[in-house]
Design a protein that fits this description.
Layout (H helix, E strand, L loop, with lengths): L3 H26 L15 E7 L14 E3 L2 E3 L2 E8 L5 E4 L11 E4 L4 H36 L3
Antiparallel strand pairs: 1-4, 2-3, 5-6
Subcellular location: Bacterial flagellum basal body
Organism: Massilia atriviolacea
Family: Belongs to the flagella basal body rod proteins family.
């Protein structure tokens, strides 16, 4: 039995969840930034995930699908990271150099509660992939023990 596919599928899930964690960290880090190096307002980022091999975008690793009773087993991959289409928050700070004539400053439309839920969700999904990988490793080691000397 080939356990490499189980390891590859779990690894692809861990990679996706790591990307989600990184994106959430970027969003939370920029929650109070009024403008970036390019002078534009930061827009929250979202991660779009798909089945590995489903997209043909260059630069993404694609897993070879194993078949199990006619079903194709594939991992996950990040399809793209895109800016969310959310309105900026308007905060009244008349002393801020980025304030408009009425004293309002445009802040990124990052919802901290949503980002914390995304953080917890990505963390749990990452942990689930680690558990699945460890289970596959344990099964592979037990299979080796069965064939060894008694």
């Amino acid at each position: 039995m080939d356990y490499r596919n189980a390891f590859a599928i779990s690894a692809s899930g861990m990679t996706v969840e790591k990307t989600r964690l990184d994106t959430t960290a970027v969003n939370l880090a920029n929650v109070h930034s009024t403008r970036g190096p390019d002078g534009k307002l930061f827009r929250p980022l979202t991660v779009k995930v798909g089945e590995a091999g489903a997209s043909f975008a260059a630069g993404f690793t694609q897993l070879q699908g194993a078949t199990l009773r006619g079903a194709t087993l594939r991992g996950a991959e990040v399809v793209r990271i895109e800016e969310a289409n959310v309105a900026p928050r308007m905060v009244y700070e008349p002393g801020n150099p980025d304030a408009d004539a009425k004293g309002y400053v445009s802040m990124p439309g990052v919802n901290q509660v949503t980002e914390m839920v995304n953080l917890a969700s990505a963390l749990r999904a990452y942990e689930a992939n680690v558990v699945a990988m460890n289970a596959a490793k344990t099964m592979a080691l037990k299979a080796l023990d069965l064939g060894g000397p008694q």
